[in-house]
């Protein structure tokens, strides 16, 4: 997907079964053992998949998993499945794996209660969409590919709600800074990014 940030976060995980022994390289479908080569392969294949029609669904947690699988099916054998290890970035720890399923159910129940963010103004959608993204980021359900899946799903959500996103406008550095800030409980910067992606004409 154009403008999607990639590998902006370097994860740390102890005794990570997702990686080849003695390395931080994630086990992958083509069995690439070089981190830089794997990154380029992932970018190329997920970009290609991002141009294809996404799986249909009801914008549910199950649909979210299907989108991750669609994007990363050529790269990781566990595409579309929630992670089973704890991961963190610096002092920020993401949702423990044993809690992911429950947290995702809670978040998507909230989304349904909000009627999939429909019948909102652009500002209201940006605010609610930022909250949804912030919660998704805190859960970080997958071992890799969370950012791309978040944006892909938000784009589907926005289109259904009548506020299509212009992802080519996305600045990855600005987006990542806003996501990090949302982890610290301030979602204003992320809402501003979403509103900018919607554009003034909405």
UniProtKB/TrEMBL annotation:
UniProt domain Fido: residue ranges: 59-196
Record's Gene3D superfamilies?
Fido-like domain
* Matching InterPro entries: Fido (IPR003812), Fido-like_dom_sf (IPR036597)
Pfam families, per database record: Fic
Q: Name one GO biological process term.
A: regulation of cell division
Spell out the reaction equation it catalyses. L-threonyl-[protein] + ATP = 3-O-(5'-adenylyl)-L-threonyl-[protein] + diphosphate; L-tyrosyl-[protein] + ATP = O-(5'-adenylyl)-L-tyrosyl-[protein] + diphosphate
**One function term, GO molecular function aspect:** AMPylase activity
Signal peptide (from-to): none
Q: Which UniProt keywords apply?
A: ATP-binding, Nucleotide-binding, Nucleotidyltransferase, Transferase
Q: What is its EC number?
A: 2.7.7.108
PANTHER family tied to this protein: PROTEIN ADENYLYLTRANSFERASE FIC-RELATED
Q: What is this protein called?
A: protein adenylyltransferase
Q: What does UniProt list as this organism's lineage?
A: Bacteria, Pseudomonadati, Pseudomonadota, Alphaproteobacteria, Hyphomicrobiales
């Amino acid at each position: 997907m154009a403008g999607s940030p990639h590998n902006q976060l370097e994860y740390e995980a102890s005794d990570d079964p997702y990686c080849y022994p003695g390395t931080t390289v994630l086990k992958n479908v083509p069995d690439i053992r070089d981190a830089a080569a794997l990154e380029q392969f992932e970018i190329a294949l997920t970009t290609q998949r991002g141009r294809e029609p996404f799986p249909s669904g009801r914008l549910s947690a199950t649909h979210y998993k299907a989108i991750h699988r669609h994007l990363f099916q050529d790269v990781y054998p566990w595409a579309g499945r929630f992670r089973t290890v704890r991961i963190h970035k610096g002092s920020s720890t993401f949702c423990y794996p044993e809690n992911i399923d429950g947290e995702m159910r809670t978040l998507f129940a909230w989304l349904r209660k909000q009627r999939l963010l429909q019948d909102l103004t652009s500002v209201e959608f940006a605010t609610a969409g930022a909250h949804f993204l912030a919660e998704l980021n805190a859960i970080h359900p997958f071992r890799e590919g969370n950012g791309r899946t978040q944006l892909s799903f938000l784009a589907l959500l926005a289109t259904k709600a009548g506020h299509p996103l212009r992802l080519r406008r996305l600045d990855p550095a600005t987006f990542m800074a806003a996501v990090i800030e949302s982890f610290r409980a301030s979602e204003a910067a992320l809402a501003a990014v979403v509103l900018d992606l919607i554009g003034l004409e909405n």
